[in-house]
């Protein structure tokens, strides 16, 4: 990959009322070599972006259910259409909740089994490296990125879980400790096509030396999350 | 002014962490007879005028699309708050 081929890739980041991590996500896109484009929830225009990130936060204060009201934002109608057409879409934390409420991904999130907010550096195993957002990881690679949520327990019925496992659509699994009671330690999943990925932990907080989780080369040195964003740029170059 | 009550409960197969916390707290107050608790949601939807069958049908639709998530929750009641008259909840909506 060279900067030149990637400079044209425009990655939209949607801001809802109550979104917290949109600027971190935009920064991650830039650090990976892409061009972040701010998108507003009330605007159906996706401004010609090549991919979309739904960032973390507490859109609409998590009122009703996390992600339930954001799902009906005008921008989401466009995101759902674009996702069905194959555009890469990444939902992080609250963004993952929005994707399940929009039925782009199966299952749902309920309150953590221990009922407390959890904030920690979380180890994940990358189990699917063929998605638009994980193609630069090695199969089985273990990564450490921050996790912070209250409603992070992934649930789905047994048949859906079996299908996800059978089709290789479990992209990330909690490793070492399951922080929220998620079924089968599932931290992130993808759709059948592999263009839509959602996960509860936060890759955009682990993209820059000095500001990430503990890494091999020192405290806050972890940049394991950056590969999400280089992966999508690589998938766009290939497309 | 009419009012429609919509009640939503977590599906039986979904663990309800909030209900679990409630049932854990009850014995501390001496309520040892309660062996389980589940926590749901009650909505009150207001309309100008009476609660007609059409209003109930619209409330049912709202309950299924916005007020509940069918993956984790069931709509257990859609009723006129004044008369307590509930529509018959079917797969097609309120009959």
UniProtKB/TrEMBL annotation, chain B:
Q: Does the keyword Chloroplast apply?
A: no
Entry annotated with the keyword Oxidoreductase:
no
UniProt subcellular location: Cytoplasm
Q: Mind telling me which Gene3D superfamilies this protein's record contains?
A: Phosphoribosylformylglycinamidine synthase subunit PurS
Mainly localized where? cytoplasm
The entry's keywords? ATP-binding, Cytoplasm, Ligase, Nucleotide-binding, Purine biosynthesis
EC number(s) per UniProt?
Answer: 6.3.5.3
What the entry lists under InterPro entries is as follows: PurS, PurS-like_sf
Q: What catalytic activity does the UniProt entry give for this protein?
A: N(2)-formyl-N(1)-(5-phospho-beta-D-ribosyl)glycinamide + L-glutamine + ATP + H2O = 2-formamido-N(1)-(5-O-phospho-beta-D-ribosyl)acetamidine + L-glutamate + ADP + phosphate + H(+)
Pathway noted in the entry: Purine metabolism; IMP biosynthesis via de novo pathway; 5-amino-1-(5-phospho-D-ribosyl)imidazole from N(2)-formyl-N(1)-(5-phospho-D-ribosyl)glycinamide: step 1/2
The record's section on NCBIfam families has: PRK05974.1
According to its UniProt entry, what is the function of this protein? Part of the phosphoribosylformylglycinamidine synthase complex involved in the purines biosynthetic pathway. Catalyzes the ATP-dependent conversion of formylglycinamide ribonucleotide (FGAR) and glutamine to yield formylglycinamidine ribonucleotide (FGAM) and glutamate. The FGAM synthase complex is composed of three subunits. PurQ produces an ammonia molecule by converting glutamine to glutamate. PurL transfers the ammonia molecule to FGAR to form FGAM in an ATP-dependent manner.
> Which family would the database say this protein is a member of?
Belongs to the PurS family.
Quaternary organization: Part of the FGAM synthase complex composed of 1 PurL, 1 PurQ and 2 PurS subunits.
Protein name (database record):
Phosphoribosylformylglycinamidine synthase subunit PurS
Q: What are the top taxonomic ranks of the organism?
A: Bacteria, Bacillati, Actinomycetota, Actinomycetes, Micrococcales
Q: Gene behind this chain?
A: purS
């Amino acid at each position: 990959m060279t900067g030149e081929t990637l400079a044209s890739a425009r990655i939209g980041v949607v801001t809802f009322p109550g979104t917290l991590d949109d600027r971190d996500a935009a920064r991650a896109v830039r650090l990976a070599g892409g061009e972040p484009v701010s998108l507003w929830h009330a605007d159906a225009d996706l401004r010609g972006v090549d991919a979309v990130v739904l960032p973390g936060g507490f859109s609409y204060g998590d009122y009703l259910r996390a992600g339930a009201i954001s799902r009906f934002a005008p921008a989401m109608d466009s995101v759902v259409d674009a996702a069905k057409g194959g555009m890469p879409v990444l939902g992080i934390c609250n963004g993952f909740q929005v994707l399940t409420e929009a039925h782009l991904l199966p299952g749902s999130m309920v309150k953590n089994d221990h009922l407390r907010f959890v904030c920690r550096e979380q180890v994940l195993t990358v189990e699917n490296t063929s998605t638009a957002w994980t193609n630069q990881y090695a199969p089985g690679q273990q990564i450490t990125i921050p996790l912070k949520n209250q409603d992070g327990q992934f649930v789905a019925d047994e048949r859906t879980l079996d299908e996800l496992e059978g089709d290789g659509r479990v992209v990330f699994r909690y490793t070492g400790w399951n922080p929220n009671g998620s079924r089968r330690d599932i931290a992130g999943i993808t759709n059948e096509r592999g263009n839509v990925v959602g996960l509860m932990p936060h890759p955009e907080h682990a993209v820059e030396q000095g500001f990430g989780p503990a890494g091999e080369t020192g405290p806050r040195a972890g940049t394991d999350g950056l590969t999400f964003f280089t992966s999508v740029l690589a998938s766009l170059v290939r497309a | 002014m009419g009012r429609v009550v919509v009640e939503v409960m977590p599906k039986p197969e979904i663990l309800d962490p909030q209900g679990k916390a409630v049932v854990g707290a009850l014995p501390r107050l001496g309520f040892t007879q309660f062996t389980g608790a589940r926590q749901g949601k009650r909505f009150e939807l207001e309309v100008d005028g009476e609660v007609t069958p059409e209003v109930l049908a619209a409330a049912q639709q709202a309950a299924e699309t916005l007020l509940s998530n069918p993956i984790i929750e069931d709509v257990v009641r859609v009723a006129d708050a004044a008369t307590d008259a509930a529509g018959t909840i079917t797969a097609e909506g309120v009959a």
